Amino acid sequence: MPKMSVGFAMTLLIVGNLIAVFSDAMVKTLDSDISIFQFVFFRQLTAVIMLLPFCMKSSRKSFINGLKWHTLRGHIWLFGAVFMVFAINSMPLATANAIFYAAPLIMMPLAMIVFKEKLTKHSIAAGIIGFLGVLVVIRPTEINWAAIAALIVAVTLAANNLLIRKLPKEQTVVQTLLLTNLVGIPASLTLALWEGQVWNWQPILTAAGSSVFILIYAATCVVAYRSAESNKIASAEYSGLLGAVGVGLIWFDEIPDMAMILGTALIILPLIWLAKVESKKRRNMDEAVIES
Asked: Cβ distance 213 to 22 under 8 Å?
């Protein structure tokens, strides 16, 4: 996949994160006694059903390539999905999303370790300020099991996005999304059976709706992280927090307090600043090439 500009990659992530909020909102509409493992299984099953028709003509070889990485990502995705359902149903939507958005900060040191990416002072500053914003939102004195679950989700999101670069470049976005969900179905079905609850197919429509939104988000991540260095664009993930605040307010009557507003500002403003810095840097590099 050809390289795209940092600005365009960040725009993709912004759109994807805003759309992902609606997936979280649908999860939040579930009853408190919902079978989590059944719901996660339904979400993966409906995702596969929706994606399979677009991959019917794909060769068997195209699916075998990189299967070990798809398997690893698929099970990390499954692990994160379980904790995501618990976290979203246990705390306000915006608060849960604020903790999820610790993922870009987690990605920065991971990218440095795994891919030897060099962290710029600007990306480090944006990450640190953004994480301070997350701390303001969750208030460390109020950390509970739901907050811990949300932090686990953040780690799984970071790991999944970094592992995108391990996937075969020749595979399409749709193939990647299909394999991520397909390889996790045996495990999610096993967990649902182990849970031992009576099967309730009623949430499958909610699961399907949630799948549509999260697949769009995952697709934007695949395209963006394949096309630009993660430390330069990861902070764009924070944009979805604004959407979470808005959806939480309109859909669930969750009124943000001053800590939420301040924390959101600390998360979003560095994103805008970083985008301008990277855009200016790229423009200067292009001018230098033209002059030479």
From this structure: yes
Domain residues of the chain, as ranges?
Answer: 6-291
State the residue for tokens 């079978």.
35
Residues 6+ apart with CB under 8 A from 20: 213, 214, 216, 217, 240
**Residue 253: is it exposed, middle or buried by C-beta count within 10 angstroms (0-12/13-18/19+)?**
exposed
| Cα gap 61→65, rounded to integer Å | 6
**Three-class secondary structure assignment of 40-54:** HHHHHHHHHHHHHHH
Give the count of beta carbons closer than 10 Å to the beta carbon of residue 169. Answer: 9
Residue 211: Cβ-neighbour burial (10 angstroms; 0-12, 13-18, 19+): buried
Q: What pLDDT is stored for residue 62 in this prediction? A: 65
pLDDT at 226 over 60: yes
pTM: 0.77
Report the percent of the chain where pLDDT is more than 70: 85
pLDDT at 290: 65
